[in-house]
Amino acid sequence: MIKTLLKSVREYKLPSILCPIVMVGEAVMEILIPYFMTFIVGQLQDLAEYGTPIKINELIICAVLMVVCALFALFCGVWGGKLGAKASCGFAHNLREDMYNNLQTYSFANIDNYSTSSLITRITTDVTNVQTAYQMSIRMLVRAPVLFISSIIMTAFIEPMMALIFGCAAVFLAIVVCICMFKVIPYFRTMFKKYDNLNAVVQEDLTAIRVVKSYVREDREIEKMTRATDDVYKYSVKAERILTVMMPGVTLTMFIVNILILTLGSNMYVGNFTGWGIGIEPKQIQTLIQYSAQILSGVMMVAMCLNFIFLSKGSMDRICEVLNEKTTLPKPEEPVYEVKDGGVEFENVEFAYSQKADEKVLSDINLKIQAGEMVGIIGATGSGKTSLVSLIPRLYDTTQGSVKVGGVDVKNYDMNTLRNKVAMVLQKNVLFSGTVAENLRWGDENATDEDLRFAAKQACADEFIDALPGGYDYDLGQGGVNVSGGQKQRLCIARALLKKPSVIIFDDSTSAVDTKTDAQIRDALRKYAPDTTKIIIAQRIASVQDADKIIVMDEGKIVGVGKHAELLKTNEIYREVYESQMKGGEE
User: What is the pTM of this model?
Assistant: First the structure.
């Protein structure tokens, strides 16, 4: 896990290495200051007890050295802070970039393993947690042990028994920290799942805010949001209750240590341990107390760092899941970079969304579509129409059999080459923030204004675009909220046509336009894109009845192929759909 995460450090390796070195320098300076202080206290003690004159020159040298150490420690602290900030922020930047880049390689099957809210939480909150833990690791988690260990070593030089006390206290605190870690990690893991749920509620409510208001469901959604926030609160409190034991435990332990130092030190000074060969000076007691404070500081910093590391452990696991996820659509060893034509062929195709699924979504699919044909697909909801066409641009891979485009198995194509030649207008129309022109140029970023107008004309979108304030420079708003459903569909069709694809797939993408406009779009496709294979999934017979070939699907199988008149005579399912729609029209 750590190895996976550290790959994202990259160009920030230097500040990541320099920061711990600088922090060690700061800790060393802080260790030296009590040592010089011991000399000054010793001079004052000798003056008070024996009347020994103070050695001014040595006193000045010690004072100057203390000031130099303090200034150098300050410099190291400031420089270390800057290096730590640069390294941690750069690490988080690369981590988010790496996660997002890997997400772009996912197939639909990979994406199905995660909810949208979970991915958002991982890229935002989880990365922030790891960033904080990383910064503390290269700063405090390096500085604190150096401060702690060096203070114990210096204490051992003064009085080994005192060092033994500090060592025992450290072992006790290590046990307390390990117990807290063992108990708190499960709560953090659960808490992050509750964060995912919270984000899902927020995303769903804001996306469907019009539906919420139209059904007057604000109170219900507020209640759902309250439950989600209560769940996060509950597990956060459970985790923090355990972690709050750490700091008071560290403080209490070190105060007890200080009491022992003063008690034992005073007894050593008055000679109660003379028979043991143990003695100590007041100046040494003063130094021990200072080192005790540094040990306390070091242990508290370690405890605080471990606190954040425990918090981020669950985040690290979730981030690594995203980084280690491999696409289910492997790249071919020798990819094909040219699509010959728009011919499509299915050979003994079977498909299931999961390897563990008991039932296949598609089975026994054998179909051949000639380049330039207009093909309609009719079938009940859940019959496998969208699953069938999703295999053509390789949004999913077949479970068995092969799909060919231009005579080549789609698995052998370079992915970008294939998808640039297979345009798909999805059932759910998606537009992005920006102008009409910016959205259309998703199809071809180099398209001229004339290209935009020509594609819009084919999609019967030119008239309403010209009527918009600003025309092609009109801002559609977030998700295209400033245009109607039918207008969205026509813009998405125009965007797909700009790709100049060999195959274009309409997944019920004219359902929101009237039948006249639907017919005009089909006529334009026949006229201006005769060599492009056109596959139309529709619920309306009128949308496909003039197709060169109509495919009837039922329960994941092709149950009929032919022209409109032929299917009316030979296919019961098609005839029933036709009669139900014609009857509805007559009534």
Answer: 0.72
